[in-house]
Design brief:
448 residues; alpha+beta; PmbA/TldD fold; 2 domains; 6-stranded antiparallel sheet; 5-stranded mixed beta barrel; 9 helices; 19 strands; 37% strand; globular
Length: 448
C-alpha cells in the first residue's frame, strides 16, 4: 500500500475534526488502467488512465454527509471537510448511522496472503495489442464466423486506503489482466454474436489468447440460424456463464438493506429452506488470487467466511453497520463503498455447492428442454420473486443439442425455482462467484 494514500485519508480525517465533525471516515482510491482495442487487425483504440479519488463521510451527532473529489490539494481537502460538516448540520437525523466502535475493527490488515498483486512489470501496450490480434485471428479462422466485432486486452493496478476517527487505518492493492473477444456469425437480421474472455490477477494464470478467440468464434457459429422455440413448460439449464444471475437474485433479496425496507421476497424466510437439501451458499472473502478478496470491509470490520445458506436453509442477512442496527443484529462485515457515497451491504465472493454431473450428462437426462447461454432484459418483482427474462441458447431434444434458439422468455417464481435447482460440476474457481451450471426441472417458456 502506498504511503501517499494513507496520508491522504489521514489528512481528510484531520480536516474533518478541525471543521467540527464528531467522527468521520475517509477513503482514497488510486488506479492505473490500460486498454487496447483491435478490429480487422488494426489498432482501433488505445487508452491509458491514471487518477486518484478521495471521499469523506462526516458525522455531527446522528447527522451525516458525504463529499468526494479528484483533487488532493490541501485547499480542496479543507474545503471538502468544511462543506461536509455544513451539509451534515442540515441533514436529517439517522439513529442508525455511525462508524464502528474501536472494539469491532479488523486487526489482520496484511493483504499479502491474498496474493492480489502481480509483481511483474506493467505489460507493454504493443504486447497487449499483439495479444488482441492473436485472439481476433483465432476467431476469424473458425468456419462460419462472418466478422469479429471487437477484441480487447487490458491491464489495471488499483489501490485503496480507508481510515477513520475510531483509529482504523488499512489498505490494499491489486492488479488485473484481461482479454476478450466478440465474434459474429450470419448476416443482416440473421446475425448472431457470442464471446469469450479471461480476467486474472496474475498474468501467468491467463488463458491462451488463441483459445479465447477460438471459443468466441465457435460460440457465435453455434448460435447461427437461431429460431423461436415452442411455447410450453420445459426443463431449463442455465449455462455456467449466466447461472450466477440466479444466485444474484437470492443475494439481492437477502441484503439487509432490502430486508430493513421490507421490500424483499425473502423477508419472511429466515430459517426456512431456500435451496435443495445438502446445498450451501458460502461467502468466501479470503480466496487468494481472486479479484475483490479482502480482509476488512468498507467500515473497517473484519471479513470472514460465512454460510448464507446452510443445507438449503437461509441462515442470515448480509449486513453493514447501519442495516444491522436497524434490524437489531450485528454486522456481517459486508460493507462496500466507493468515494462518493456511504457504505452499503454487499457480498464479495460466494461459492455454491457443486453437483456430481457435468452439463453434458445433465443435458442427456433432460430429454426436451432449453440450454440458456445468454439473457436480456429483466422483470423481477422484488416483493414476490416473480421472474421473467428474455433468453437465447440451444434447444435440447432427446438429450442432445438440436438447434439454436432466440427471442423467447422464461418465467417462474424465484421461491420455486431456487428450491428445485440441480447443480452441475463446472464452476470456475478463479472468479468471484463459483457457481456451476444450474438446471430447473420445469419453467414456463414463451416462444413461437
Amino acid at each position: 500500500m502506498t504511503q501517499s494514500l494513507a496520508d491522504l485519508t489521514h489528512r481528510l480525517i484531520d480536516a474533518a475534526k478541525a471543521a467540527g465533525a464528531d467522527s468521520a471516515d475517509a477513503v482514497a482510491v488510486a488506479g492505473t488502467s490500460v486498454s487496447i482495442d483491435v478490429r480487422n487487425s488494426v489498432l482501433e483504440q488505445a487508452e491509458r488512465s491514471e487518477g486518484t479519488d478521495i471521499g469523506l463521510r462526516v458525522f455531527v451527532g446522528h447527522k451525516s454527509a458525504n463529499v468526494s473529489a479528484s483533487d488532493t490539494s490541501n485547499r480542496t481537502i479543507e474545503e471538502m471537510a468544511a462543506r461536509a460538516v455544513a451539509m451534515a448540520n442540515e441533514a436529517p437525523k439517522d439513529p442508525h448511522a455511525g462508524i464502528a466502535d474501536a472494539t469491532q475493527l479488523a486487526t489482520d490488515l496484511d493483504p499479502s496472503r491474498l496474493d492480489l498483486v502481480d509483481d511483474g512489470p506493467e505489460p507493454n501496450p504493443a504486447w497487449l495489442e499483439d495479444q488482441a490480434r492473436i485472439a481476433e485471428a483465432a476467431a476469424q479462422t473458425v468456419k462460419g464466423v462472418a466478422q469479429v466485432q471487437s477484441t480487447s486486452a487490458g491491464y489495471g493496478r488499483h489501490q485503496v486506503h480507508l481510515a477513520a476517527t475510531n483509529g482504523f487505518s488499512g489498505g490494499y492493492e491489486s492488479t488485473s489482466h484481461s482479454l476478450s473477444s466478440v465474434a459474429i456469425s450470419g448476416a443482416g437480421t440473421g446475425m448472431e454474436r457470442d464471446y469469450d474472455y479471461d480476467s486474472r490477477i496474475h498474468l501467468s494464470d491467463m488463458r491462451d489468447a488463441t483459445e479465447i478467440g477460438r471459443i468466441a468464434g465457435e460460440r457465435a457459429v453455434a448460435r447461427h440460424g437461431a429460431r423461436k422455440p415452442k411455447t410450453g413448460t420445459y426443463p431449463v439449464l442455465f449455462d455456467e456463464r449466466i447461472a450466477s444471475s440466479l444466485i444474484g437474485h437470492l443475494l439481492s433479496a437477502s441484503n439487509g438493506a432490502m430486508i430493513a425496507r421490507g421490500s424483499s421476497w425473502l423477508r419472511e424466510s429466515m430459517g426456512k429452506r431456500i435451496l435443495p437439501k445438502g446445498m450451501d451458499l458460502i461467502e468466501t472473502p479470503h480466496r487468494a488470487r481472486v479479484s475483490g478478496s479482502r480482509l476488512f470491509d468498507g467500515e473497517g470490520l473484519p471479513t470472514s467466511e460465512r454460510k448464507i445458506i446452510e443445507d438449503g436453509i437461509l441462515t442470515g442477512w448480509t449486513l453493514d453497520l447501519a442495516a444491522a442496527r436497524k434490524l437489531g443484529l450485528e454486522s456481517t462485515g459486508s460493507a462496500s463503498r466507493g468515494t462518493s457515497g456511504p457504505p452499503s451491504p454487499s457480498v464479495s465472493h460466494v461459492t455454491l455447492t457443486q453437483g456430481m454431473q457435468s452439463p453434458f450428462e445433465i443435458i442427456r437426462e433432460m430429454g426436451t428442454g432449453l440450454l440458456i447461454t445468454s439473457m436480456i432484459g429483466s422483470t423481477i418483482n422484488p416483493n414476490t420473486g416473480d421472474y421473467s427474462r428474455g433468453a437465447s441458447g440451444l434447444w435440447i431434444e432427446n438429450g442432445e443439442i438440436a438447434y439454436p434458439v432466440n427471442e423467447c422468455t422464461v418465467a417462474g417464481n424465484l421461491h420455486d425455482m431456487l428450491a428445485r435447482i440441480i447443480p452441475a460440476n463446472d464452476a470456475r474457481k478463479h472468479i468471484s462467484g463459483v457457481i456451476p451450471s444450474l438446471m430447473i426441472d420445469a419453467m414456463t417458456l414463451a416462444g413461437a
